[in-house]
Specification:
It is a single chain. The protein is built from 11 helices and 8 strands. It has 283 residues and is α/β, with parallel strands linked by helices. The chain has 2 domains: 5-182, Rossmann fold (3-Layer(aba) Sandwich); 193-274, N-(1-d-carboxylethyl)-l-norvaline Dehydrogenase, domain 2. An 8-stranded mixed sheet has the order 3-2-1-4-5-6-7-8, sandwiched between helices. Helix 1 packs across helix 2 and helix 7 (189-205) packs across helix 10. The relative contact order is 0.10. The protein binds 3-hydroxybutanoyl-coenzyme A (3HC). 3-hydroxybutanoyl-coenzyme A binds next to helix 9 and helix 10.
Length: 283
């Protein structure tokens, strides 16, 4: 089954990236937000990202215009009614995601595939509120979506092979390398990523090394594009805390106990780049 029209719920950091990449690769896209203000902000960010690509000579003006013409922003979920695939990229709140899936299940055609871009929540929990659990799977994209090459698809115990095959075809057509993960806490990538981040936070918290040495050590010693504390500031400390806590809640594995400092920083609003302060200052 080849998709023609993709729906994206949420035009935040992940949603707008998914919308941009889908439109760039030729799909018609509908992206929704909960109000006009957030929608305008998200659409402006897509415009800016494409303008940057033109500036850098990575895209022609004609291709930018074509891409933009393929994206329709909306505040009305009914617009998803003729989408072949809808990717929900709302905030990481299971109650909210379930509510969105109940709505999508009602609005979308019976054959449409529904997907959640969660980084850690149980995909089966959202599939179970629909009447089409065989057509539900997880799509875990990475930040920044237009740059990161990986797409992690998450297959639940009810996802059909047909659904998975269609999502694999779509993921590859976006230019992503696609892996298939089981619906287990952390899937594949965050199961490896979070203990590494916890260790970096603990090293910093206990004064083993300075933030700069931790970052430089990992960046140059392991050839990572950025060190863990810089990366934490980019991803958002609240997001990381949420993922670590969610994996711990399901596994009770001590590898996923969030360091006290991380929790305090989130409480203080030191969330990283987005608030101007995290492990580093950005003001
Ligand atoms: N949108 C679009 N393009 C972007 C971008 C964005 N937000 N940020 C950077 N780019 C592009 C730039 O235009 C540039 O393209 P070019 O080389 O063709 O000109 C390229 O990416 C490199 O950017 P810069 O030169 O500005 O900066 P860097 O070389 O430092 O790269 C980076 C920035 C791509 C963010 C790189 O440092 C990186 O890959 N960092 C690691 C990111 C990572 O690990 N992400 C995963 C986070 S975990 C996650 O998402 C999972 C979740 O569940 C927690």
């Amino acid at each position: 089954m080849a998709f023609k029209k993709i729906g994206v719920v949420g035009c935040g950091l992940m949603g707008r990236g998914i919308a941009e990449v889908s439109a760039k690769t030729g799909y018609d896209v509908v992206v929704s937000e909960i109000n006009r203000e957030l929608l305008d902000k998200g659409m402006a960010a897509i415009n800016q990202s494409l303008a940057k690509a033109v500036e850098k000579g990575k895209m022609t003006e004609a291709d930018r215009d074509k891409t933009l013409s393929k994206i329709k922003g909306t505040v009305d979920m009914q617009e998803f009614k003729d989408c072949d695939l809808v990717v929900e990229a709302a905030i990481e709140n299971l109650g909210l995601k379930k509510k969105i899936f109940i709505d999508l299940d009602r609005i979308c055609a019976p054959g449409a595939i529904l997907s959640t871009n969660t980084s850690c929540l149980s995909v089966m929990d959202v599939a179970a509120v629909t009447k089409r659990p065989d057509k539900v799977l997880g799509c875990h994209f990475f930040n920044p979506v237009p740059v990161m090459k990986l797409l992690e698809l998450v297959k639940t115990i009810t996802t059909s092979q047909e659904t998975l095959d269609a999502a694999l075809e779509w993921g590859k057509s976006l230019g992503k390398t696609v892996i298939v993960a089981p619906d287990r806490p952390g899937f594949i990538v965050n199961r490896a990523f979070m203990p590494y981040m916890v260790e970096a936070f603990e090293m910093y918290e206990s004064g083993v090394a300075s933030r700069e040495d931790i970052d430089t050590g990992v960046q140059l010693g392991l050839n990572h594009p950025m060190g863990p504390l810089t990366l934490a500031d980019m991803v958002g400390l609240d997001t990381l805390l949420f993922v670590i806590d969610a994996i711990y809640a399901e596994t009770k594995n001590p590898k996923f106990v969030a360091p006290v400092l991380l929790r305090k920083m989130v409480t203080a609003g030191h969330l990283g780049r987005k608030t101007g302060k995290g492990f580093y200052d950005y003001k």
